[in-house]
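Open question from group meeting: does this chain pack into something compact, or does most of it stay loose? Before anyone orders reagents, we agreed to write out a predicted structure and look at it together. Recording both the input and the output here so the notebook holds the full record.
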Amino acid sequence: MSQQGLTGNRIVLLSIIGLPVTMILAATWLWYFVARGDIDIVDMLGTSNHGTLLNPPTLLVDQPFENQFGAKAKFLSDKHQWTLVIPVPAQCDAQCVSTLYTTRQIHVGLGKEFGRVRRVFVSSETVDADAPVPQVQGEIESATAANLGSYLEVQHKGMPLLVLNSDSFDALFGDISLGTWFLADPAGWMMMSFDLGTHYKDVTSDLKFLLKNSGD
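Structure tokens returned:
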């Protein structure tokens, strides 16, 4: 091989080795200035959120969840999804139906990102499937369901129904206002809360931004 060819190969090899090193140095430089407060990445990206960050976030995977039959149930999804957590203190009332409807609208509004998110219903009691469905003005679907079980199965199909004992539920959600729901990341950290006072389109916009800029 000619001297010119060897030189060219060395340049290519050095470029391959040097690129990762350059990226690491650049990342270290960026982190240094972010940590000092000289660079505000959130402001640079131009995002805004309509929820409330939890400080500190809460890890859900250690909670003693059960399914509707009293068997142990895990919180995490095998699909590595973000989760909209809907806490229900007891049986599903009108506020619960409103929250279910709103979070479903948000989920559907994610479009092509729909599969990266799921919803989970968490109650302090097993759902009474034979109970009547609470009526909510403007929510026609609940009015046409025969009972709560059929409403959840048809209108919120595929949504896991989990149960936490009262003590665990109160420790986790005890001081929340009715209609509050939460966002958990794919690792099971509950990190943000939302309420029904926020328009679902604003939340959908925030979630789309989050999914676009997350590596999950």
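Observations to bring back to the group:
The longest strand covers residues 52-59.
The CA atoms of residues 94 and 134 lie 5 Å apart.
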